[in-house]
Amino acid sequence: MLVDSHCHLDFPELAGKLDAVFELMRENQVERALCVSVTLEDFPRVRQLAQDYPHLYASVGVHPDYEGVAPVTSRELVALADHPKVVAIGETGLDYYRLKGDLEWQRERFRAHIRAARERGKPLIVHSREAADDTLRIMREEGAGEAGGVMHCFTESWEVAAAAMRMGFYISFSGIVTFKNAKLLKEVARQVPLDSMLVETDAPYLAPVPHRGKTNQPGYVRHVAEEIARIKGTTLDQVAKVTTDNFNKLFNILYEESNV
Hints:
This protein is of the alpha/beta class. The longest helix is centred in the middle third of the chain and has 17 residues, at 104-120. An eight-stranded parallel sheet has the order 1-2-3-4-5-6-7-8. It has a single domain (2-258), classed as TIM Barrel (Alpha-Beta Barrel), CATH 3.20.20. The protein is globular and about 40 Å long. α8 links the parallel β7 and β8. The protein has helices at residues 12-15, 18-27, 43-52, 74-80, 104-120, 132-141, 158-166, 183-191, 221-232, 236-251, 255-258; strands at residues 2-7, 30-35, 56-60, 86-95, 124-129, 149-151, 169-173, 197-199. It contains eleven helices and eight strands.
C-alpha cells in the first residue's frame, strides 16, 4: 500500500471529483493521503476533509507564496493544530522564485511555523524554491530538528538533502522525478536512503509521466514510487512499504486509524 504524503484535495480541480479521486486511489493501492493547507482562510476546508474521511489527514499553515494575507503567529498555529487529524504544520518555507524584493516577511512567517511545530510537537512540511541557503539557515537557527518534518517536492542538490537529513528531515519526491530532463534529481533520489524518503503528488499539480500535463491526483503517486524503485534497483512493494512506514512514523499515525 502507498501513501500520498502531500496533496491539495480542497483545490477546485479536485474538490468536486472526490468519488473518482478515491476510486483511482483504490485501484492503485494508495491507502491514504495528507491534504496540505496553504492559507488559514482555506484551512477549515482542509480540516473538514480529514474529519469526513478516515483515510485523509490535514496540515495547517500558510504557503510562502501568499503575500497578501494576514500575518500568522505561532500561537495561532498551535491552537489550530490541536486536532487529532491535523498531523503537521505547513506547508511553510521560502520561495524566491515567484516573489522578489524584500522577503523578510516570508522568513518571519517561516520562523513562526517552526516555533509552532516545536511547541505543538508536530512535524513541519517545508517548501523551498531557489532559497536553499536561507531555508537551511533558518531551520538551524530555530531548532527545526526538534520538530522534524519533510522537505516537500524536493528539487535541490544532494548537499541540501544531506543537510536536511542531518536535522532529521525526510526528503519527499514528486512527479518531477519521473520527468526525462530531471537527471540531477534522479541522482539525488538514488543517493537518499529509502528510510529517509517519502513520495507525493502535490496534486493537482506536477502530474508524473505518463500523465504529465494532466490534472494530478493521489492515485498517480504510484508512478512516482515506480520510478524510485527503478532508480534504486528495488521493487515497488519495497518502496511502498518503507515510504508508508516512514509516513506513519513521521506523522505519528497508527495503521489501524486509517486502514479503510
